[in-house]
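Listing S7. Sequence submitted for prediction.
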Amino acid sequence: MLDVDLDGQALVRRLNVRRALQLVFDGSGRETRAGIARATGLTAATASSLVAELITRRLVVEVGPAASTGGKRATTLAVDGAHHLLLVTVIRFSDVQVTLVALDGAVVHDERESFTPVDRDERIRGLISRVGRRYSSRLLAAAVQLPGATDGQRVLQSVQLGWVDVPLAAQIADELGVPTLLVNDVDAEAVAEMTVAADTSGRRLFVHLGIGIGAAITLDGELAPGPSARVGEIGHVPVVFGDDAHDCECGRRGCLESAASMTAMLGDGFVEGMDAVAFDALVAAADPERLTAGAVALGRVITMLAAMLDPTEVVIGGAIAGLGEGFFAQVRAQAGVAPTGAVTVPVRVATSGVGGHVGAAQLALGSALGVRWCAGQLRASEPR
């Protein structure tokens, strides 16, 4: 890890090491020592010293000569994907997935296991421990993505998992021997969207539809957290009233989740991460009136939040793309009627093909090394 030393000189060097590493991440396979010196304003000797440290730490590797500019050809640098690994655990309602990601964004190992409420905790810990032991010498950091509110170290509350005030990060860190952080699943999706986006400037509202419904806000590509780690807990805000309201799992009536969650619209057969064939069958058998009611309820909430936050755009993630353009058109039509004094905000579906581990992996990378992947660097590839 690129630890921060309180000594002034050491702190400056740590910051310069991070700057150099980020430049290599930005131009992996193209960056050179001379390029780092130019971009940072440092001397050639200092830039070379920083690169030497990054190579020693197995974060950067020399990959070959740069294109000739008339003199001696420089040596290009790339992110070293052959050693350090980030262990990402994604916990859903009925299964857990552990993915190992190399520093160059490649998936090295991917393993998934289903569980029941009875054996859930045992299977989650067992899978993390088994994979962690196999790759223990290469682990740099870990992240756990889960449904529920977390402060990064403790699960404050997860209704889906039935956890309250669980020190999960410390437990996993003790098992793996590396720093571990926790992240809410919707926050992780928002980070993933920003990781693959060409433009991350401005404020964005991300809304996820699944068994539950949550939201996240990013500002210039970074999460905008609240003081109690509960930004985006919109699923149990009442938005449907009177005879149209349905009972909600929380015990109230008319909550957003009771109308617009995937289980509310498609039935209890929906599970997070289900295969496309089974999902399409649920959509084909769905009650059109329930789908319309869900689209209207979701559109209302987006309208309210957009008027309050004035975001650059609203991004909807989860399984919404599988509901078809007709459903999304209804959401967009409802959200497209801006309140007096407000403006219409663009609403789009989240980028497709982004691996479910990407957001948590980026947060683990940032926590460990203080750098970011660029658009297109993270590859949801077959394990190598």
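Caption to Listing S7: primary sequence and predicted structure tokens for the chain studied. The longest helix spans residues 288-309. The two ends are 24 Å apart (CA to CA).
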